[in-house]
Input
Amino acid sequence: MSLDSLQDLFVEELKDLYNAENQLVKALPKMAKHATAPELKAAFAEHLDVTRKQVDRLNEIFSALSVNPKGKRCKAMEGLIEEGSEMFSKKGNPSVIDAALIAAAQRVEHYEMAGYGCARTFAKLLGHGDAEKLLQETLDEESEADSKLTEIAESVINTQAQDASGA
Ligand code: FE
Ligand code: ZN
Ligand code: FE
Ligand code: FE
Output
């Protein structure tokens, strides 16, 4: 599809996010499975539920635009998930692996925040008020997920990971 208008770009960005979220619906259960700290497992499980709702919101926007959401592969998310699974496939101390999972997951959340921030802004410029509101809701959730991961890292995981080395 050629990009002749901001509307075209808006749709492309939405398709990228749609594919990225669907990749995450598959990846988050694996992240949860490989996490050891109960609060981290719970955070991944909770974000899976949130992610499913985010897919629903995108579906709502696509139907309002009468656009088919399929047909784009988000290569960036593929790469981010690949890096995350490299981390949990390694042997090592469980707390250090948890810290690695958090570092990978925060990259994902920041990627999503960038995508939703742009899409939200395009929706506003194009006068798609309903889409703007839905995209802002998701942006806020991604930001909350990122903060939650920081909190878990700083309150528990990082200290345990540091103690693991015996240093
Ligand atoms: Fe998301
Ligand atoms: Zn992408
Ligand atoms: Fe990288
Ligand atoms: Fe997310």
